[in-house]
Amino acid sequence: MQAQIRLTIDGQTRAVEVDTRATLLDVLREQLDVPTPKKGCDHGQCGSCTVLLDGRRATICLALAVAHDGATIITADGLADGDALHPIQQAFLDHDGFQCGYCTPGQICSAIGMLDEVKAGAPSHVTTGPTAEIELSDAEIQERMSGNLCRCGAYPNIVAAIREVGR
Q1: 9-27 tens-digit pLDDT
Q2: Partners of residue 5 on adjacent β-strands
Q3: Given 32, 58, 60, 91, which is the most exposed site by the fewest CB atoms within 10 A?
Q4: Structural domains for the chain
């Protein structure tokens, strides 16, 4: 069965006919030629497909496209303002927060989403004390980013990049 949906991807609204069983990741990559979110595990466990979906980080390999008709999606490609990189993107470059780069788009989107969660006072498993003043310690960052895996092991540099922007 097919359905017509509309998605706003990195500021551009697009209409697409999708199979009702298709994931948002497959629609973006295979039908709309948006290669930035990566297919890693296809089970929602690695975070390579993380984007900002209606302002919140989401692994889209498990999200049915038809369930997100009208959604706004920001990929790592949609974060820059012209030639000016988003602060997280710049910090990843400055701190060498990537090696092969495969997980980087998902790591960057997840980092932005988790920093928004911290600003909103959302606690994590390691949060102690009042949530209005969450200390962005390495343990806090590691816990909040634990859904994004890096096969190259660039974790110390990723944490340093997030810590810098989170100050």
Answers
A1: 999 999 999 999 999 999 9
A2: 16
A3: 32
A4: 2-78 (3.10.20.30), 87-166 (1.10.150.120)
